[in-house]
Amino acid sequence: MSEHEDEQLVGEYPSLPKQKRSQQKRDALLESGRALFIEKGYEQTNAKEIASHAGVATGTFYRYFTDKRQLMMSLLEDQLEKLLPPEPNWTNVDPESFFATLLEQHYKRLNRLGLHRVLPELLLKDSQLAEVVAEARNKIHARILMSLKNAREQGIIWDDLDLDTVSWSIMVLSDKIPEKMTECGNQVDYCELAKVICRLVFPPDVLQQLKLNIK
Amino acid sequence: MSEHEDEQLVGEYPSLPKQKRSQQKRDALLESGRALFIEKGYEQTNAKEIASHAGVATGTFYRYFTDKRQLMMSLLEDQLEKLLPPEPNWTNVDPESFFATLLEQHYKRLNRLGLHRVLPELLLKDSQLAEVVAEARNKIHARILMSLKNAREQGIIWDDLDLDTVSWSIMVLSDKIPEKMTECGNQVDYCELAKVICRLVFPPDVLQQLKLNIK
Amino acid sequence: MSEHEDEQLVGEYPSLPKQKRSQQKRDALLESGRALFIEKGYEQTNAKEIASHAGVATGTFYRYFTDKRQLMMSLLEDQLEKLLPPEPNWTNVDPESFFATLLEQHYKRLNRLGLHRVLPELLLKDSQLAEVVAEARNKIHARILMSLKNAREQGIIWDDLDLDTVSWSIMVLSDKIPEKMTECGNQVDYCELAKVICRLVFPPDVLQQLKLNIK
Amino acid sequence: MSEHEDEQLVGEYPSLPKQKRSQQKRDALLESGRALFIEKGYEQTNAKEIASHAGVATGTFYRYFTDKRQLMMSLLEDQLEKLLPPEPNWTNVDPESFFATLLEQHYKRLNRLGLHRVLPELLLKDSQLAEVVAEARNKIHARILMSLKNAREQGIIWDDLDLDTVSWSIMVLSDKIPEKMTECGNQVDYCELAKVICRLVFPPDVLQQLKLNIK
DNA sequence: AATGAATGAGCATTCATTCAT
DNA sequence: TATGAATGAATGCTCATTCAT
Asked: Which residue ranges are recorded for the region named Disordered (chains A, B, C, D) (predicted)?
């Protein structure tokens, strides 16, 4: 079992590549790593494969990364933040179409990154990574929660639901519904999902009002 | 990488154990497998460890299972069905406390089985398994959906939401919210979560009425 | 670079072999390790070769030893003590023939063990081992020195030489002369070497007297 | 494992460096090689490290040397001869102080070169090198032996010892005593060692006489 | 049936050497 | 000439699986 308590998240590169060509190779390795992790799973992928998929020799992998794990970390660091949702201004938008668009974008982004499919496997054995991911999730959750609090002050959302639970629900529905439905062979209807999420937030009459305000 | 396209789901046991002692060993192996998969992850656990944790020799493992994978399959087969929710009769229960109880039980069951933590890792590389799980999920989904359809005929639920989406939402919220909140260090309040789920289903006034009917 | 500060000299076996066959395999591995270390040098020998020379699979090597290093340590531990010279009683023996016999035995033993040829290489990089060997050498040196001190009290050895230096000289001559001469293609004449060593210890007239006393 | 049976001892330089800069680089590489071989052992040192220690690129190493081995050879060739002891004129010197000085110088030189610490490792696997070293040792031995023979003709040394054995003893004591004593944590007293060596050569009364002759 | 020693293919990693720049 | 990134064969070690006892 490998030990890595004292490493930073991404750590030093074995040697910092300075030339253009180098950066290209590093990128190719990252991209190949991502593709293979998603395709076959983290554990099922090895450094040799990543290298050969990237069109470089095995040894080259180790010039740029100390480890399969470090490559994974680099991938995550780059991209976890990109998942932060934009701050909505509820009075200016049709919440349903706002959410529908947001959901679709979000899921496309998730799919592009793809790493969410390998995360569960990793979180189980890399508690350091688990922390990083938990922190990122908490950040997203906090932003949603704040949004909801503002909305409540404006009196435009249900007043009998616990906002913390609502925001976690929104997160989970955004992340997992498309995943589960796809897994089970169904198509995701982002509009319907948006409606469901809106129902968690807005009483139907308020929602109606908001829609009217825009036009 | 082992090939197993043509195998059945669980396959023949290398020899069908008919005697008590045998059955005990098989059970011990299953239990040890489950414990270790949950504790360390599927990939990180090996047959030798499972055997020694179960107090038998390595070779004995292979008398009862062809494979770590087959043991996993057996674990899943046994237990996926147990997750089917009971058919509720909405006119007889307070939906909120019904859901709260259901959720808590469900999550406790999930935790007892524990395997949901290893599933994502497996689904990625074992499409046969993925199908089994998808089927089980679809079964649960179908039952929830039917419930909702009955309720709609009774006119007691929102009439503008897509029932398919709603039932997926209920499933996902039941499965994932507790997981995510625990991962991120929050306590789950099953009552609040039940209220949120109820809001997806029942208009507040109907819910009020249902509660009154009981008493 | 491997870390092994906290290990004992030989350490735990990966698993203690209890059966006869096992012990035979372990012995075969030790013997093959010794033969190959001597033949090709420590660094030039790898676990796979040792295993195949011993007629077992690579993995079997690792059942009995954690490491090439551990095998080496086992070899040394067994045998360093065997090099302790017997305590001589100068009044009972002809020193020259005593030394001649001793030298020949000693060198044959060294050659049988053979490990002295690989030691210098190891001492350079394994300070823990270096300590063990230094300790063993000091033990031998101490015994020789004590012998000499007794002899000096009996007034039978040169009184103007530093006994510490003399005993180191005896050790070095015993160990290294045969080695160097062989390396350079000369035959060792143990009788002549014994005479030289005796000259370091006994004045010629005393030696004469000692020889007479015996007969 | 590289093959080099058909190479000459040192071989052609990949390109004969004629310019100053080149010679400086070559020297820097030699010096770095020596330093690292001594510090970490021959096997533990690689070309990349030598190059980087010498402040040049990896590839540059291979412009000047075909091999780590060739660099080693160059180091040895340069310096083995330097170990030749001067021809003493016994009638002009105090043998004890002559030897004491000689020993100290010799050991300092050995330490400066340092390579004697890596030699044993190399001799084992490079029989060509072993020959070179054996030849150098034989040369030194021959010179000592000749010295002793002259002295014997002058009747100033023990007449009952085998001169061949004595000269090997002198060599071994000169080379190894300081090494062993240092290894075992003792200080070397060159004067005492000189006295011991003198005892191997000169009868005490002759030595006394030689000392008197000088003053 | 049960055991656990033995197997050897497979993976992560290193490093001597080459070669495009 | 000089560079250092790239190469890929070789090494140490693991582990799923077999099989003699």
From this structure: 1-25
